[in-house]
Amino acid sequence: MAYIVVATRNAHKVDEYRKLLAGQNVELKSLLDYPGFPGVEETGKSFRENASIKALAACRYCDVPAFADDSGLEVEALDGRPGIYSARYAATDPERIAKLLEELKGESNRRARFVCAIAIAINGEVIESFEGEVRGVITEAPRGEGGFGYDPVFQPDNYDQTFGEMDPELKNRISHRAAAFKLALNFVEEEMSVLNDDFDI
Ligand code: ITT
């Protein structure tokens, strides 16, 4: 079977992509399967730039088609912060959430969106990138134990649960990651035959 590498060490992302790829004739690996991967600095100024940097580095290192996910939370009242710095906003998930709620204390505008950029790299080149989003609000306090990152404080529009409370399958249908992945999969299906024998190992 052909395989593709997702250029991440975030096990939650790997899990979500594994479910999104279910039914496709491809095996998913991640950088967790390549412990020697030296890592790469996310020096881009946008989600797409950082996704491209990560996809390219993984494709070159692993010598197979790769895609990367750069994602984060943009909060309206914070002029889009933490944005591409969502992972670097504080050291741990609970600290990131505490800092965000502190920054939004007394703020009535709780509007926010999750953004996910996916870049695909093949044969040592980035061929395309895609962006998906999901809009919603930041809750006053964390709710739910599921998911990762900012999930317990993000409530998507038209739902009364946070991503932390929601059935993970539902999150994985309506999320920024699902939206970007759908665009990427359409592109692969329509424009390329990357999942064919050429890339078998
Ligand atoms: P890789 O770079 O190895 O993929 P990372 O976790 O550092 O792992 P990013 O640089 O893309 O990934 O940072 C994304 C951060 O944005 C992530 O650590 C979370 O804090 C947040 N985030 C992204 N998607 C999320 C989601 O679905 N739910 C909750 N938080 C999310």
Features:
5 helices, 201 residues, alpha/beta, binds inosine 5'-triphosphate, 6 strands, Maf protein
Between the first and last Cα atoms, what is the distance in angstroms?
A: 8 Å
Shape: globular
Largest sheet: 6 strands, mixed
Number of helices: 5
Per CATH, the class reads: Alpha Beta
CATH architecture: Alpha-Beta Complex
Mean pLDDT: 94
The CATH topology: Maf protein
Quaternary class: single chain
Give the names of the bound compounds: inosine 5'-triphosphate
Unreliable residue runs: none
Share of residues in helices:
25-40%
Radius of gyration: 17 Å
Q: What count of structural domains?
A: 1
In spatial order, strands of the major sheet run 2-1-3-4-5-6
Q: Give the topology string: H per helix, E per strand.
A: EHEHEHEEEHH
The tally of beta strands, per DSSP, is 6
Share of residues in strands? 15-25%
Task: Name the structural class.
Answer: alpha/beta
Task: Tell me what the structure shows.
The protein has one domain: Maf protein, CATH 3.90.950.10. Strands 2-1-3-4-5-6 form a six-stranded mixed β-sheet. It is of the alpha/beta class. It has helices spanning 11-20, 47-62, 93-103, 168-174, 176-191; strands spanning 3-6, 27-30, 66-75, 111-122, 125-138, 154-156. It contains five helices and six strands; from the N terminus they run E-H-E-H-E-H-E-E-E-H-H. It starts with a strand and ends in a 10-residue tail after the last helix. It is globular, with a radius of gyration of 17 Å. Bound molecules: inosine 5'-triphosphate.
